[in-house]
Amino acid sequence: MKIYLIGMPGSGKSTLGKPLASELGIPFVDQDKEIEDREGKTVKEIFASLGEDHFRQTEAQVLREWAGSEKSFVMATGGGSPCFYNGIEIIRQSGLSIFIDVSVAELLKRVGANKDRPLLHANDLKEKEERLAGLYEKRLPIYQQAHVILHHPTLKSLLEVIQ
Ligand code: S3P
What we know:
By secondary structure, this protein is of the alpha/beta class. It has 8 helices and 5 strands.
C-alpha cells in the first residue's frame, strides 16, 4: 500500500502522515528528507547552490524510485512534487493520493515565521501571503486531482481518530 499526502507547505502532510503510517504499521517517508540525504545538503542549500531545476530533478527521481518500488509507505511529498515532471500522474498511478486542503490564511499562520522554505522567501508577511496565494492558485488544479481531498476540520477529526 502506498499513500501520498500532497498539498502546500504547512498543510500538515507530516503531521498527518506520521500517525497514519504508525497506525497502518508501514514506514513514514519524508520526501524532502530523502532528497536531503541524497544530496548531503538541506533543501535550502540545494536551492541556493544548485538551483530549483536541480532540486526538481532530484525530487522527481526520488518520487519515481519510491513509486516504482515494491514497498508500502506513507509519504509526505514536497509541496511542489505533484506539479513537476508529471508528479501527480506518478503519484495517482502508484497509490492513494490525499490532498490536504488548507486555506492561504491558515497556511500563512503556520509558515509565516519559517525561513527554511526558499520558494516562500519574502521581505514581510504581506509578500509571503502573496507568494502563498500565487502558488496555491497555480497548484490547486493539480492537487485537486488527488483521489481524496481533506479539508482542515476533517483533518483535525481524522487526527483525533488516529492518535
Ligand atoms: C516546496 C515545498 C517544500 C520543499 C521545497 C519546495 C514547494 O516542502 O520541497 O522547499 O515547492 O512547495 P514542504 O511542502 O514539505 O514544505
